């Protein structure tokens, strides 16, 4: 009998605002821009795309399109989504 597996989806394990914040911080610290947009997509799925779109004040379709694999969201969209996730963007000195 073959072992059946399913792909791991971190969105299924982000259950609290604190977990989402920590996840986004980690990706922002060690990933690039594409990684951060992908992380926003993951966090949005964890919260629920419809709920997040309402909180961000953008349409659900626009949210999906912006955070898709080949999406190219405006900074304003990234800012709205980040705020709707209960976080804020900040500029800090880069470590050396």
UniProtKB/TrEMBL annotation:
CDD domains: HTH_XRE. It holds the Pfam family dnstrm_HI1420. Residues 49-92 form the HTH cro/C1-type domain. InterPro entries: Cro/C1-type_HTH, HI1420, Lambda_DNA-bd_dom_sf. One of its GO terms (molecular function) is DNA binding. This is Addiction module antidote protein. It comes from Candidatus Electronema aureum.
